[in-house]
Design brief:
about 60% helix, alpha+beta, about 15% strand, Topoisomerase I, Chain A, domain 4, four-stranded antiparallel β-sheet, 2 domains
């Protein structure tokens, strides 16, 4: 494989791992209402016979800092959305009022905040594993290229350093996002 292509694929994989982690961090409760908390929730809609993301099924708003208001585009999906929220790992219970679900966000106890920080750290570590796997795959491809005489040994060492620098940058990026999310979770 072309070494430039290998480097591009490596960077793309690492970037996707970081972006996925950031998306996952958005779903972690901080004690403050945010549409990001529920918009990625998978909802099995019986009337459609498929799974859909909540943001595809409803308008999600936050009228104040302690409440999420979910208004389905199709009122037939109301109970499916309510069930998905109850079964999620968020630990929230909404109330159906007419054609709207009101989802109060309770204040987090210090113990629950610490559990959320552990969850953020776990998500961050999983993302770091994905970044390192991308590094490992890229280096294996580069070594294969050197073995097949596509690149020289000097090029191999230079490209390995570039891959490592890319890895270090993405991991530092993840650490920064983890630290800011931890701070957000621990702020009362």
């Amino acid at each position: 494989m072309d070494p430039e292509m290998t480097m591009l694929e490596c960077e793309d994989s690492m970037t996707k791992a970081v972006e996925f982690a950031i998306h996952e961090f958005a779903a972690v409760r901080t004690g403050k209402a945010s549409p990001g908390l529920v918009e990625g929730l998978d909802v099995h809609v019986h009337s459609y016979g498929s799974h859909m993301k909540l943001k595809q099924l409803a308008m999600i708003t936050t009228p104040d800092s302690r409440l999420i208001r979910i208004e389905p585009f199709d009122s037939a999906t109301l109970h499916d959305i309510d069930r998905a929220i109850r079964e999620s790992r968020l630990g929230l219970n909404g109330s159906i009022e007419g054609k709207v679900i009101r989802l109060p966000i309770p204040a987090l106890s210090q113990e629950r905040r610490e559990q959320m920080v552990k969850l953020v750290k776990q998500m961050g570590e999983e993302a770091k594993v994905r970044v390192r796997a991308a590094r490992r795959n890229a280096i294996e491809e580069l070594k294969k290229g050197e073995k097949d005489s596509i690149i020289t040994e000097d090029d191999l060492h230079r490209l390995e350093k570039e891959v490592q620098a890319m890895t270090d940058k993405k991991i530092a990026d993840l650490d920064q996002h983890m630290a800011s999310k931890e701070k957000e979770v621990l702020t009362v």
